[in-house]
Write a structure and sequence with these properties.
The chain has 290 residues and is mostly helical. The chain contains 11 helices and 2 strands.
């Protein structure tokens, strides 16, 4: 029982960051119909951004996280403006190849800039864990969970309670009608891609100090983001949030009760089952985008 409680606590912490990854990816697909293969590299960019600002420049750890998220948003906006906007209206094969090319270029750039040696990001939190009964949690992981939940709530508020969110949902439902109602579709696309990229960078910046930072860290993160979106249903923010926690729970249980080597395999086994029996996702009937 004690072991199960510890796994459930770990699920909450990892699920929050997984949800950030999934929301960012499903937001971009739902509104722009773009399969963003650079999502994992934006996650890695957030981790390297935190390393650069906090370790190389020596700035405050918390402020460095904000810089990493802002940098991810700027990079996302540039990808949309330079790569996607000129190809708006092109077939999905062209867009997918474009994003795959951008993914490879970004990863090779990280190799060139930082080398292949893993980077460690020190955190300002004490090394002594917080012990509550049978549960032991590091202060850093508690901080990661708190920030992830705040970002998820802020994203929901933005989508459902602001004029920008209304314009994004209108664009998702009918682009032509939204344009006739005065919505600047181009600006919405850029802001959507920047927001989704910022969420991916936030997940990378939060998990960078928990693990280590490498140029290939985005590969598995990208696959997990697609898995979360498949679980929750494409374009479904609520589903992506729940899907993130489901994936974290399955991984945690697989690693704890079967083998740590099965942590990633268990998650993708669930994806195979979902694709076989409910290919639209578990929460496909829930209202999408908001």
């Amino acid at each position: 029982m004690d072991q199960l409680l510890q796994h459930l606590a770990n699920t909450l912490i990892m699920g929050g960051t997984y949800a950030l990854l999934g929301i960012g990816l499903t937001l971009i697909f739902g509104i722009m119909r773009v399969v963003n293969f650079t999502h994992g590299e934006l996650y890695a960019f957030g981790a390297y951004g935190l390393y650069f600002v906090a370790v190389v420049l020596g700035m405050n750890f918390y402020v460095s996280i904000l810089f990493a998220i802002a940098g991810g948003m700027v990079l996302g906006a540039l990808i949309e403006l330079v790569l996607l906007r000129p190809k708006r209206g092109a077939d999905i094969d062209t867009t997918m190849l474009l994003m795959i090319g951008a993914w490879i270029v970004l990863q090779n750039t990280e190799h060139l800039a930082w080398g292949s040696i893993a980077k460690s990001i020190p955190s300002p939190f004490p090394t002594e864990p917080l012990v509550i009964g049978p549960i032991s949690l590091s202060w850093l992981r508690i901080f990661v969970f708190g920030v992830a939940i705040l970002l998820i709530i802020a994203t929901y508020f933005l989508i459902n309670r602001t004029r920008l969110g209304n314009a994004m949902r209108a664009t998702f439902q009918d682009t032509d009608t939204a344009a006739l109602m005065g919505v600047n579709i181009r600006a919405i696309y850029t802001m959507t891609f920047a927001l989704g990229s910022g969420l991916a960078a936030a997940a990378g910046a939060l998990l960078g100090p928990v693990f280590v930072v490498t140029p290939t860290m985005g590969d598995l993160a990208s696959l997990k983001a697609f898995a979360i979106v498949i679980l929750g249903g494409l374009g479904n923010i609520t589903g992506a949030t729940i899907g993130g926690f489901i994936l974290a729970f399955v991984e945690e249980i697989g690693a704890g009760y079967i083998s740590s080597g099965y942590r990633d395999a268990m998650g993708f086994l669930i994806i195979i089952v979902v694709l076989l029996f409910r290919p639209t996702g578990i929460f496909a009937r829930v209202e999408r985008i908001g």
